[in-house]
Amino acid sequence: MEYGKRGVVVLFWALLILIAGVGTYGLWVNMALRDRPWQLEFRTDALAGKCRTGPAALAFRPEIASLNAHIDGAKKCLSEVDGMWPARRDYTSCVQRLLETSLLAQRIRWNQEIRASGVKVRLAAALQVLESEMKADAGPQTGTVRNYSQFQARTLLESARNLAAMGQAESALVAAMKAQASWAQSEIFVAAELARFYDEPLRARWEKLAQDLLTWTARNRRSAILVDKLEHRCLLLSNGRVEQSYAVNLGRNWFRNKVQEQDASTPEGEYEITRKFASTAFGQALLLNYPTAAERQRFNALRKSGQIPARARIGGGIEIHGGGRPSSDWTDGCVSLDNREMAELYSKAYVGMPVTIVGTSSVK
Amino acid sequence: MSKFSMRLGWAVIFSLAASLLFFACASAPKEEISATQSAIQAAQADDVRTYAADSLKDAEDTMAKATAEVQAQDAKFALSRDYKAASELLKQAKGKADKALTDATANKAKVKAEAEALIGTLAQTLADAKKALATAPRGKDTKAELEAMQNDLKSAEEAATAAGTGMSQDKFAEALAQANTAKTKAMGIIEQVTAAKEKLRGRK
Fold first, then answer.
1. Are A137 and A322 in contact (CB under 8 A)?
2. pTM flag (> 0.80)
């Protein structure tokens, strides 16, 4: 009995001590953050790792340096607390530092993602704009002002597409921007070359030439030919009106006035047919009296002033001939018509027939 | 000493031992965590993100699971903590981080080899395109096409130069993309010239 009583008392005390121990433990646990915040630590590390890598990292160097300092501080805090006696461990301040670091990392990451999505949006927009501009200006077609920048832009666009396909968005954007710059350069070149077609005194001179020719046909009751370079049309004029209009190909540098041999430009001025050829490499042909005396004079003056090389030659053999293509300006300066249309024009042409070539005019 | 005092002494010792157990029982595998963290950090490199992004993500995801498991065990009552699953996940994460590094090295080497091989043949392809252009049918009617092809060749040479620059800067993916552009352009020229020659042969 005595033992039984004592046993109960011992058990009671043991239980009391155990409950007190568990209670103290519970209190101790809840008084502070006793567990190392592994998850928060890893998430912060992972986020920082993302911030530190990728093309965007270069653009965020100062922010990343600050993030690294924050991480070092938080890690130092964690190792300090780790080194403490278990009962004294409290990670509260470390959690605060980790949260601050995590927020900083998140902010950097968001900014990087905004930048990356900006890169992707800009790349998509640049590619779309370039593709539509190039599609609208897809060569070969008549009236194109060719220049190297166009080809460079097309190659750069292809590079941008290839780089984007390989996930190199930033480099793809650089290539797309270079392509845009080349395309813009080409547009400037085209605008500079075509500016003369909008020069009022020059337009007035061309208009006068065209109207004079029209009047001549009305007065003499004979037909004549008017070539409009900008419109790429060859007009058969008769009795003061346009009898027929044909599409033409011109010299590869059609937009310039012919100055010398090999410049691939179509001359501008008043000419006449000096010979008719029933069969040539390019079908039927009408030879013009290029160069005229005025053109020779201009050529000599340019050569004398050094604007063209001293060894340059004026060239010749400018014709209206067949061999025309549905697209592309391909001749060395001649005017080329579709063979069937050339046959029609040839039948109405005569030696001595006036041919006026102008940049553009209101005669359509 | 009475029997009661002795038993009370034993009870106190037992309780103290039990209390000690609360603190001393299973603790987080810090060394494993630290080793895995180091492996993951080593894998968080530019090259790995470029050449083995999926492998790295896999390692990071496994590490996230492992730390979540460690945290879950830490939150449990001391005697019921069990870090076996966490340990296993940590091992897996470390293995995956190492794999990401290996994959990145292998993929980078593969892209490098691919770029090198392409650039190696590019000089010949460009020379072939140049040769084709030199032997292309010439005449008044082909000058426009020849000029266009010459411009294409010039831009292809520029792309080839950009590919070489990419290689020298260890940007193999970029080098490969540029080399592909140059090759496409050069091959296009060769095909056009071949077609023009065949057309001419057909005409004869």
1. no
2. no
* ipTM for this prediction: 0.72
Q: Say which amino acid occupies B189.
A: I
Residue pair A271/A292 in contact by the 8 Å Cβ criterion = yes
Cβ atoms of B141 and A323 within 8 Å: the answer is yes
SS3 content of chain A, % helix, strand, coil (to 5): 60, 15, 30
- The tokens for A300 are 């000599």
Mean pLDDT of chain A: 91
Distance of CA A190 to CAs A123, A200, A328, B144, B158, Å?
A: 25, 18, 16, 17, 23
Number of inter-chain CB pairs under 8 A, A vs B: 154
> Which of these, A128, A146, A126, A124, lies nearest to A137 by C-alpha position?
A146
**Count of Cβ atoms closer than 10 Å to residue B178 Cβ:** 32
Nearest alpha-carbon partner for A268 in A321, A213, A228: A228
Name the amino acid, one letter, at A208: K
In the structure, what pLDDT confidence band is assigned to residue A139 with cuts at 50, 70 and 90?
Answer: low
Cα–Cα distance, A81 to A85 (Å, whole number):
9
Domain boundaries defined on chain B:
29-107, 108-203
Indicate the range of A82-91, A269-278, A294-303, B13-22 predicted with least confidence: B13-22
Residues 60-99 of B with CB under 8 A from A: 60, 63-64, 67-68, 70-71, 74-75, 78
Token pair of B179, please?
A: 């080399």
Determine the Cα–Cα distance for residues B81 and B74; give it in Å rounded to an integer: 7
Strand, coil or helix: what is A238?
strand
